[in-house]
């Protein structure tokens, strides 16, 4: 099994060896993550040429040499020669680099998952390399059925309240209880209906109640007629 993790590659040097469509896809993902990308290949596609000419990446127009690994944090071996890819991986692994030879599970110390994205929300799906096609199928299902624009907007909104919640609520467990109460309550629906001012009002009341002793008789801050209220309303 692989350990799931999200890497912060912003400003980190990353190497892609190869110039075909698969290599180009790896370059694109690294650029989007803010990495400092170097490509080594005798020939590359138009996208890589354009990125190089605009100084988004560095391209060395030649074959790979072992010194290309110097200073790199992450390495993709993505040539069309499996033996070359395996050699690059072995050198990178010996140098304690995060390294992947594409489509060769035996020569990877990490694998790239299939990723569904909507705004700031990302869901990574992996089958531990056993079936990339299945991972992509699940990815597509999550993308179309789960990651709606409303989910992305909700994530952005909750993120905007994190510092305020930390300022008022002093322990991780109490903050977790509050967030779970918020998610089971009225805020997601208010945002989905374009009622952010009411969502803000609810959040302020949630924080006030969370900082006060638990009130088992609390009522919903948005719908007074509701006797059954979420944990956030009750100040849990």
TrEMBL record:
Q: What is this protein called?
A: precorrin-2 dehydrogenase
Ordered alphabetically, the record's keywords are: Methyltransferase, NAD, Oxidoreductase, Porphyrin biosynthesis, Transferase
Q: What parts of the sequence cross the membrane?
A: none
Domain Sirohaem synthase dimerisation residue range list: 152-205
Q: Which domain of life is it from?
A: Bacteria
Question: Which EC numbers characterise this protein's activity in its record?
Answer: 1.3.1.76
User: Which example biological process does GO assign this protein?
Assistant: methylation
């Amino acid at each position: 099994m692989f350990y799931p993790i999200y890497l912060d590659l912003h400003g980190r040097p990353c190497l892609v060896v190869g110039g075909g469509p698969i290599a180009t896809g790896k370059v694109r993902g690294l650029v989007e993550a803010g990495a400092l990308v170097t490509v080594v290949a005798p020939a590359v596609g138009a996208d890589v040429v354009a990125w190089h000419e605009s100084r988004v990446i560095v391209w060395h127009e030649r074959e790979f040499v072992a010194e290309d690994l110097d200073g790199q944090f992450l390495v993709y071996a993505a040539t069309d020669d499996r033996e070359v890819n395996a050699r690059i991986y072995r050198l990178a692994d010996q140098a304690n680099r995060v390294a992947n030879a594409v489509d060769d599970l035996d020569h990877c110390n990490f694998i790239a998952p299939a990723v569904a994205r909507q705004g700031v929300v990302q869901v990574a799906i992996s089958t531990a390399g056993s079936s990339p096609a299945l991972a992509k199928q699940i990815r597509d299902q999550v993308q179309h059925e789960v990651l709606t624009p409303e989910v992305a907007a909700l994530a952005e909104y909750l993120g905007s309240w994190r510092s305020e919640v930390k300022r008022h609520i002093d322990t991780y467990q109490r903050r977790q209880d509050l967030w779970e109460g918020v998610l089971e309550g009225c805020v997601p629906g208010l945002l989905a209906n374009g009622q952010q001012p009411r969502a803000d009002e609810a959040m302020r009341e949630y924080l006030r109640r969370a900082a006060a002793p638990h009130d088992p008789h609390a009522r919903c801050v948005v719908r007074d007629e509701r006797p059954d209220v979420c944990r956030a309303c009750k100040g849990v």
